[in-house]
Amino acid sequence: MDIRDLYLRGLKFRQLLEEELESYDTYDLPLRRRLWLWRHGFLSRSEYVYDLTDDRYRYYLTDFERFVRTPLINGEWNVALTNKLLFHWLMGRFEAHRMGVSGMVRDGRYLPLDSDGSPRGTRDEPPAVATEGLGANGAELSLRGRKTTDAAQRVLERLQSDGRLVLKWIKGGGGENVYLCSQTDDGIRVNGEPKTTAEFESLVEGLHEYLVCEFVEQSEFSSSVYPGTTNTLRVVTMYDETEAEAFVPIAILRVGTDRSGSMDNFSQGGLSAPIDVETGEMGKAVQLRTPTDLVRHAEHPSTGAQIEGVEIPEWPTIRDRLLGIAEENRQLPYVGWDLVLTDDAGGFKIIEGNSYPGMKSLQSHRPLLEDERVREFYRRHGVVRR
Predict the structure, then answer these.
(1) What per-residue confidence (pLDDT) applies to 177?
(2) Phi, psi of 51 (to 5 degrees)
(3) What is the three-class DSSP state of 259?
(4) What's this model's pTM, rounded to 2 decimal places?
């Protein structure tokens, strides 16, 4: 293990401790039970998500193993997943499954990107917007009689043209630092909240290294479960070096609810429905209704749509296409892919890749280490030692 790996482990261990300290008062647990959890590598929150009995806890990937050890699996290639623009470039060979990125906002400036996500110069291009009041560096523009930045104006015009777009921090994860923007007859909304034009411009002006992304329209099936959010598949792939192939150890459908706001995040009250990786049939969805209250739903609690027993349309096609992409990127042996289904014929777009996917929404259904092939993968990469 080199200095970089030691530093990363130390950083992740500190983050693990900080998360436990920040949530300490949320969980009313006897000290003896907390000590038992810590000794076995779990945060207090896991008591309410996993079945941590004396004969079951060994089958769960622990919080320590996930936070501290799994970030090292992809080694130097981690940057391709933690930096969303690099990930976009990496997916260039798979255009049919790649989300569009039109530009990047950096401290008030708009940096345009070509359709393939590569930078392009603008010196010889006619301006796409009015240039009254243009400063020497191109950063200041006049919009309706007041000064604004070129980023604010360009993003606003993009929003008005497309109707919807996503502003996503180049490094964020877990649904944080993401703004879902829409232009309707009633005005602008950001993450469901109304904004005036001036408020939206001010928001954009304050962003640094945010990508301006296509809003991917979800399929009829995904919308039928719950139309209030873009519902995503989280599919984990692992590359088996012994068999020289990628495989899917676990997959879920994440669905928003009236509690989760504009996102489908499990930690915010969204649903996680397990998917049979062979057939695509879903089981009962789980919901963390409060930090200590895990409930199961055969139907969506807001729409009444059936979940348990329903199959993801064309799941084998989706799975096999994604496995092909994973095998083309075998330098990344461990990825948590986030997909939006775009039609009911196996179409999807990849909106993100995660280097050490969270475990709550996955292992709330079953412990990963019950599968010996998964256990062996983690052993080979130094994550588990049992």
Answers:
(1) 87
(2) -95, 80
(3) coil
(4) 0.89
Whole-angstrom Cα Rg for the chain:
22
The mean pLDDT value of the chain amounts to 90
75-97+219-355 — its CATH code?
Answer: 3.30.470
Distance CA 206, CA 188 (A): 17
Query: 194 or 135: whose pLDDT is higher?
Result: 194
Tell how far CA 211 is from the center of its chain: 14
Farthest-apart Cα atoms in the chain, separation: 71
Cα–chain center distance at 183: 24
* Location of structure tokens 């296409």: 321
DSSP state of 62: P
Please enumerate in sequence order all residues whose Cβ is within 8 A of that of 20, keeping only pairs 6 or more positions apart, or say none.
38, 43, 44
The answer to whether 256 and 229 are in contact (CB under 8 A) is yes
What torsion do the CA atoms of 69, 71, 75, 81 make, to the nearest 10 degrees?
Answer: 170
Residue with tokens 């397990």: 274
What's the CA gap between 234 and 353, in Å, rounded? 9
Q: Where do the structural domains in the chain lie, given as residue ranges? A: 75-97+219-355, 101-214
Q: How far apart are CA 144 and CA 140, in angstroms?
A: 13
